[in-house]
Amino acid sequence: MNTRKTLAELKIGERAEIVGFTDALLSLKLLEMGCLPGSEIEMTHLAPFGDPLAIKVSGYTLTMRKDEAATIQINLLNN
Amino acid sequence: MSQKPKIALIGNPNAGKSSLFNSLTGLRQKTGNFPGVTMDKLTGTWEIEPGQEVDILDLPGIYSIYPKSLDEELVINILGNPANEDYPDMAIVVADASNLKRNLLLFSQVRDLGIPTVLALNMIDVAETEGYVINSIKLARELNVEVAEINAKKGIGINGLRLAVGKTLANRYASNDALPLPVDELMLEGIQLKFGEADPYRSLLWLMEHDRMKMFSPDQRKAFDAIQDEFQFKSEEYKTSETVKRYEALSEVVERCVINLNRQWDAPPVKTWTDRLDSVFLHSIGGYLFFFLLLFVMFQAVFTWAAYPMDAIDAGVAYLNDWLKTVLPASALTGLLTDGLVAGIGGVLIFIPQIAFLFFFIAMLEETGYMSRVMFIMDKLMRRFGLNGKSVVPLISGVACAVPAIMSTRSIGSWKDRLITIMVTPLMSCSARLPIYTVLISLVVPEKSTLFGLFNLQGLALFGMYLLGFLMAIVSAWVMKQILQVKERSYFIMELPTYKAPRFKHMAISILNSVKAFVFEAGKIIVAISIVLWVLASYGPGDSMSQVDAQVRQANPTLSAAELSNRIASEKLENSYAGHFGHFIEPVIKPLGYDWKIGIALITSFAAREVFVGTMSTIYSLGGEVDDENATIKNRMRAEINPETGKPLYDVALGFSLLIFYAFAMQCMSTLATTYRETKSWKYPAIQFFYMTALAYLTAFITYQVLA
After folding, report:
1. For residue range B295-338, what is the model confidence (pLDDT) as tens digits?
2. What's the structural domain count of chain A?
3. Which positions, given as ranges, span the membrane (chain A) (predicted)?
């Protein structure tokens, strides 16, 4: 089953597909850095205190804060 | 020869731009760059053919031409304005082949601005180990551009790049594509009518980014706003749609030119070195432990390893000084040369080993990619204090010098976070404080002592001073966060680069440049102040100086000749202009434990703290009590006696009080000037000066009163 969530809710090791963005300003920055709708991402690290987080997207690692991750809508992928 | 062609290097952060810049220019670089900080443009020359040089301009790494922070603004201000003195004849876009699509986004934007462009494909080896094979000939045809395959780090493929650049410089081919996404023709005409004929994409860039471009006057900015309103043009929406559209087109290009060898959906993910290292460095406990350990080792090293070359330089300077004194006739001029200049310059030279070590470590953190991990693990903590994970870079490079560190805050997107970082960065102990710490610590902390037989206590004390600076910086940041109640969003979207082995040649160049800059910049000030100080300390108001001689002789008829001349010398210093200044401020600094001689050093240090050691050596050598055998500044200070107690003047209380004062006081004109330049207001450097000096006074007062 695919469940719709935001990136902030992903657990370490889980994979998902980017569906869309809810914040217009952030979405440009994310797009430019290679977070495209349809690309696959994996949650790889949580900083101490659970924030910020690091994800793997098309072969490289991006970091962002939890509230920024909450603007990315995802589809959880089953491993 | 005519004007040299100018070539701009453009690319994503970590695409290998700086490596390429170093391969091309080697030591022919104009701007000294501090390690860890590539905020400003760098220039150098590249001999493209025998006898033909081109100017290379290295610009900060960007993901797109739309800037999100101040350092990125520089790029559109150069590429968007043909009247800019740095506007290039052509551009080399350096692309990371292992991440082609994202890198091509920037390439397509730069080319659409109407700038002749060459695409340099870097890190093809990385792409191939990941299973991607790139057909660069096909890519060149599809994109209609010269493509060169390079390995920037190893300097491979430079000849191919020469060829591509030569061709592009000869034909000046720039694409004349239509806009990626059509806009109202009338609007474009409106812009061109008002602001001149330009490439359509450039006109559009002006419209969207006019507030960030320095070429436009306030009136012109209003005109742009009016055009935007008239045509209901929404910049942010356009940028987003444009980016999506460009990616769509580039996806097809990449699809045709890149073969993916492991396109099986369930291919097990390969654990790379970066993954393995990150599981340690980003670990919630281990990450902090490692970071702290690393800093600790760094300061131990700065103190212990650097001691050997430092002792050698120290002995060399003392020897030179003594030799000059025996060779030259004893005169006022000889005094100026030996006690003023040689002592002052020696005071700078001796710290080259420590400063080089410090720069080496900072360059190492940056080079390997570890610095971004530190930002990541520190972000949450820093945010509590009103800072940002990205503040870590200015704070760490503040250990070298606050000037480039303050400049490096340009990468912090939020104004409030950036301002607070600028305000507190000078509290980090910079390399100019190192000489003062070293001398004072060696006076008050026993040399041979160790903790658990392992750690050198002097090294530990030095580490403590740096830690103290850092703690004070974050506490001050927290206070400022409470005062500055601005709600502003700050970003923390950032790429973690893969770990890389440091490029030692690259590091050597930047360490060399930094040390050179430090020696010459500090050297100039020290020489100037030494001369002024020497004059002020050798002459006094009226005929007071000439009377000293007779008075001392009369008052002390029983003293031996040597003792008498010492007494005369110190009386003379006390009656000189410098002595008067020192006595003038003595009441203010007395509660901190300082006498009028230290007062003179404090006054001279207000322009630049690095003159402290030089001032001390000038004062003590003029003030007599010189044993020519071992005339180093340390020994002179150690021999200084407190006239009230009869014990050594530099005891634990005074030593620590002075250490604390120099740790926190704002004694650097260059830093204040940089703060002014970066905040564009005198208000902030003024606040910085007063809060830091007040803090220094207060804490030094408490230290002295508690320890005395």
Report:
1. 888 777 776 787 788 888 878 888 888 888 888 887 777 777 77
2. 1
3. none
